[in-house]
Amino acid sequence: MGAEHQPQTMATTQLLYGRKNATGVNWITLIAMSAFHVLAVVALFQFDWGAVLAAAVLYWMAGMLGIGMAYHRLLTHRGFKTTKWMEYFLTFCGTLALEGGPIFWVATHRVHHQKSDQEGDPHTPREGTYWAHMGWIFMGAALHADNDVLKRYAPDLCRDRVHVWLSKYHWVGHIVVGLVLLAFGGWTYVLWGTFFRTTVGLHATWLVNSATHKWGSRRFATRDDSTNSFWVALLTWGEGWHNNHHAHPVSARHGMAWYEIDLNWYGIKALEALGLAWDVKVAKVKQAMAEDDLGVDLAAEGAA
């Protein structure tokens, strides 16, 4: 999972991802991220309960509705279907995370699954924990500038004019929300609702790239180093059950045991209950299997 950066051109069929192929510093990203981190610290000295509440609501919108439910489980893996207006609304929420627009986020993540912890993975900890966590977004070319890569890995979104617009202008929503916060609560609300909230959300997502490929438990013997992490799952609304996900990437449900809290999955189930989600793909636990030897069947609720 992560932001919008990293590949080189497609001069050949072999994509040049990974640390050794990343040349040059992406100064715009580096300066922007540095400013966000500094202002996130400043927010701690401008405490206000209303501002904290605004930050919490936006953290939920951007992290759960946007990144977890929309960018990841809906757009990248098509784990469920929903109406177009709901898809676009959830995607807009994803742009508020400041992780780039939907097309280049999805393309990056699809490459990650194809090359996970192998040559060509954009952000594997095998090339360094810091690299996997955030270093990879500061180096190399930006994915959104490489149309060949986008069309190859996200052709479905590239054909959708709304997703193309949301990708091109993914920063607009962030500015609009910032102006609303400024008008409603002043500079303190902006510090918490924009800078602090966004910075924490970025690190939460980056932990899925770094921590859940290094530490945690492994239920499934996948070909990569993915792990399940309870504390990362709490920070990311359920994305921390990463080994479960890599074993069954299409499944809209990542927390497969009763104790694996997966709020993104609960959100999808809520949409389904309202008639706003269908063809929900889910990895179902075999009840006869022992808890430590969890068996899983991939099925679709209400779909073939």
Question: Which keywords apply here?
Answer:
disordered N terminus, disordered C terminus, 5% strand, 13 helices, two-stranded antiparallel sheet, mainly alpha, single chain, 304 residues, globular
What does it look like?
The model is unreliable at 3-14 and 287-304 (pLDDT under 50). The protein has a domain at 19-219. The protein is built from 13 helices and four strands. The protein has 304 residues and is mainly alpha-helical.
Architecture blueprint of SSEs:
Blueprint: H1 27-43, H2 49-76, E1 81-82, H3 84-95, H4 102-115, H5 129-133, H6 147-153, H7 155-158, H8 161-168, H9 172-185, H10 187-210, H11 230-235, H12 242-247, H13 263-273, E2 277-278, E3 280-285, E4 296-301
Helix pairs in contact: 1-10, 2-3, 2-4, 2-10, 2-13, 3-8, 4-6, 9-10
Estimated radius of gyration: 19 Å
Count the E strands: 4
Order of helices and strands: HHEHHHHHHHHHHHEEE
Question: Major sheet: size, sense and barrel closure?
Answer: 2 strands, antiparallel
The neighbouring-strand order within the major sheet is 1-2
> Would you identify the regions where 5 or more consecutive residues have pLDDT less than 50?
3-14, 287-304
C-alpha termini separation? 28 Å
Multimerization status: single chain
